[in-house]
Amino acid sequence: MKLMVIGGGGREHAIIKSLKKNPKVEVIFALPGNGGIAKDATCVNISATDIDGIVNFARDNAIDYAVVAPDDPLVLGCVDRLNEIGIPCFGPKANAAIIEGSKVFAKNLMKKYGIPTAKYETFDNAAAALAYLENAPIPTVVKADGLALGKGVIIAQTREEAKTAVRDMMEGGVFGKSGSRIVIEEFLTGPEVSVLAFTDGTVVKPMVSSMDHKRIGDNDTGLNTGGMGTVAPNPYYTPAIAEQCMQEIFLPTVAAMNAEGRTFRGCLYFGLMLTPDGPKVIEYNCRFGDPETQVVLPLLESDLLTVMLATTNGTLADTEVLFSDKHACCVIQASAGYPTAYQKGYPITMTEEAERATYVAGAKLENSKLVTSGGRVTGTTAVADTLVEAISEAYRLCRGVCFEKAYHRNDIGQRALQAFK
Ligand code: AMP
Ligand code: GLY
Predict the structure, then answer these.
(1) How far is the centre of ligand 2, averaged over its atoms, from the C-alpha of 76 (Å)?
(2) With 90 as the cut, is the pLDDT of residue 175 above it?
(3) Which class for 20: exposed (0-12), middle (13-18), buried (19 or more C-beta within 10 A)?
């Protein structure tokens, strides 16, 4: 089979390494891929948001199956366009990708179908939002409606901070059109859990749970990032909570999307918070998480391509989705300065064993040498029998991935370990 994977980060590298294990795969094209992915796939310099370019490439190269990994092309209708020319895809159509593309849509869906989430109000004009904030409980959470590279959420500790966020989004245009509508919601507390789930629109098969580390600094301090590391499984997510989530959140969400005429097929990502009142949805994503994928797929024992095809063909009920009972930890290395200003172009060296364990996110080839080209540069994953071992092995392997001004958090997995205390 000739496969095409849209995207070019660590998540896509992990997906490609998994897909390659299937002997039926003859070639994988990555659009655009990156300098590290080039070891495992044929990179093609077409951007993930160039839908016309992607469709033309797929047609010209007789692609058998496409995996659309990032949010933007999904929301832009990449799957719809590829389906129109007869190419089956992993991922939802645009009318279902809206579950991530619009937070207002997602919140209204949850309210309509009784799916537990934070209480909220939506606004499309700043004056009304500012008036509401005069009496809103503090802390409060201000969210831009549309996609904002994971940065459209402000946890405001004071009324002034919340008002500034509203002005920035609705009047300052810091997130462009994404901020012209906003959600203001109740601040929730509790451990966070990411659950990615395969669904064919009827059956839901959750993957092993995981925990992201979104802040740049140790002990969850500093700015939000795209994710600085992950562990799986998430020890706060017990079998009893998993069953509760299946009944109260996962199945109702898939049913709600069907009822709305927006059948979701692909990977549905549930960002959950285990609050004192039970699990609640913080966010939906219409795709695999990054860097959750880098710990979840290494634990997948079933064949990824077979499972993906089952979500597309509606045969997930008959398809085994098995995970190992081991533990995984992924440590991201970023360029110092990320998530604000950082330098690019530093050469990257990796020992052989580190390279085998590493997914490349922000790097390109320059004269056949790998150099940094992004904020988050690499993610190094270890799998072991216990979480403690996975963490120490991931950090050991990480020392084999070197570039100037590399930065990583030193506490990936520590919050998860506290669950055992
Ligand atoms: P999101 O981009 O929606 O994943 O939000 C980023 C982060 O903000 C989440 O991972 C949570 O840590 C936090 N967050 C979002 N919504 C809430 C909420 N209602 N209460 C508390 N924290 C939240
Ligand atoms: N790790 C969070 C996300 O992929 O959005």
Answers:
(1) 18
(2) no
(3) middle
Separation between Cα atoms, residue 15 and residue 79, nearest integer Å: 17
Ligand 2: centre distance to CA 62 (Å): 31
Residue type, 250: F
Q: Which atom of ligand 1 is nearest to the CA of 212?
A: 10
Give the closest residue (by CA) to ligand 1 atom 12: 192
Q: Which residue has the tokens 């959950």?
A: 272
Arithmetic mean of pLDDT, 106-110 = 97
Q: How high is the pLDDT of residue 4? A: 98
pTM exceeds cut of 0.90: yes
CA of 8 to the centre of ligand 2 (A): 15
pLDDT in tens, 237-263: 999 999 999 999 999 999 999 999 999
Q: Which atom of ligand 1 is nearest to the CA of 185?
A: 19
SS (H, E, C) the chain: CEEEEEECCHHHHHHHHHHCCCCCCCEEEEEECCCCHHHCCEECCCCCCCHHHHHHHHHHCCCCEEEECCHHHHHCCHHHHHHHCCCCEECCCHHHHHHHHCHHHHHHHHHHHCCCECCEEEECCHHHHHHHHCCCCCCEEEEECCCCCCCCEEEECCHHHHHHHHHHHHCCCCCHHHHCCEEEEECCCCCEEEEEEEECCCCEEECCCEEECCEEECCCEEEECCCCEEEECCCCCCHHHHHHHHHHHHHHHHHHHHHCCCCCCEEEEEEEEEECCEEEEEEEECCCCCCCHHHHHHHECCCHHHHHHHHHHCCHHHCCCCECCCEEEEEEEEECCCCCCCCCCCECEECHHHHHCEEECCEEEECCEEEECCCEEEEEEEEECCHHHHHHHHHHHHCCEECCCEECCCCCCHHHHHCCC
